[in-house]
Amino acid sequence: MRIPDLRAKLEKLEFLLGHQFQSAHFLDKAIAAAIQITPEAWARKKGGMPIRPAELTRLVLHYKLPRGVKPEVFLLPLDEFCAVLEQHKIGLFGPDDAQLARQMMVQNPRSRYGGLRLLRVRATRAGLGDASEAEPGPAAEVFFTGQKTVIEIAVPKPGYLLVINDQIPFGEATCLVPSVFAQYLSISKPVLRVPEANSRRRTLDVMGPPGWYRIFAIWTPTPLSDLWLDAEFANTQPQKISDTALKHLAGQLLEHNQNGQEMSIMIADYRVTE
């Protein structure tokens, strides 16, 4: 069977579910592997070539759609397809404020300026846990519980920085910068590390439970207005960010974007295993 508008339906699913999966989940090679065909064959099917019922079933499983959503949903016209997703409250059709805020940050069109990566700390004779002696190794996205990491952030130019760790398995977000690991909001260096050099900690411990996590590094050239951060954040362990504060932050970023103001939202996904 042919689905001429399959590409548009997949784009709709990516928009609705983008905050629930790591970005690689939506790549063509990941989808091709999930439905058990080659990337070349998937490109043809996405472009309108016939797709088998079994492949549609695997597509539903890949997007983890609820049981009430049958593979035949992809055969519906686009507007009816969207209506079924809304009826079953898929993704953003049934979000709370915090989910919506996360999606706004993920979908922000200015997310590609600057750079963000997690570095694995190598073992040395001094042991793990001291970045001054254990030089960070290659970028990695999979960590075991208890491993050590350093976050490296390249910013476009001097300005202000917030770093948020979105703990997806918990449904919580915590503020890494500012915190006791890195007190700066105002920054002047082009490349920063968390923990910063004068922190008592040289590395961050990767904690569980197993699952996917996401880090947002948010750069703006001027402070965000009506900043929701408590003044004590810079002197404490990473604090939980309330859903209300997260929504407020996303609203400020949306306003920045609509006004054409400079900003950058850098994103890094990582997975924790046991």
Task: Based on the model shown, name its key terms.
elongated, alpha+beta, 274 residues, seven-stranded mixed β-sheet
Distance between the termini: 42 Å
The radius of gyration over CA amounts to 21 Å
Shape: elongated
Name the structural class.
Answer: alpha+beta
Strand percentage: 15-25%
Q: What is the count of DSSP helices, taking H or I runs of 4+ residues? A: 7
Helix content: 25-40%
Count of individual domains: 2
Number of strands: 12
Largest sheet: 7 strands, mixed
SSE order in H/E notation? Answer: HHHHHHEEEEEEEEEEEHE
Uncertain residue ranges: 123-138
Average predicted confidence as pLDDT: 79
Task: Explain what this protein looks like in three dimensions.
The chain is an alpha+beta fold and 274 residues long. The protein has two domains: 6-94; 104-273, no CATH class. The protein contains seven helices and twelve strands. Strands 3, 5, 6, 7, 10, 11 and 12 form a seven-stranded mixed beta sheet that branches. Strands 1, 2, 4, 8 and 9 form a five-stranded antiparallel beta sheet that branches. Helix 2 (28-34) packs across helix 3 and helix 6 packs parallel to helix 7 (243-258).
Quick rundown:
The protein has 274 residues and is α+β, with helices and mostly antiparallel strands.
List the helices and strands and how they pair.
Blueprint: H1 6-17, H2 28-34, H3 39-46, H4 53-62, H5 78-87, H6 97-106, E1 115-121, E2 136-139, E3 142-144, E4 148-154, E5 159-167, E6 172-177, E7 186-187, E8 191-194, E9 204-205, E10 211-220, E11 239-240, H7 243-258, E12 264-273
Parallel strand pairs: 3-12
Antiparallel strand pairs: 1-2, 1-4, 4-8, 4-9, 5-6, 5-7, 5-10, 6-11, 10-12
Helix pairs in contact: 2-3, 6-7
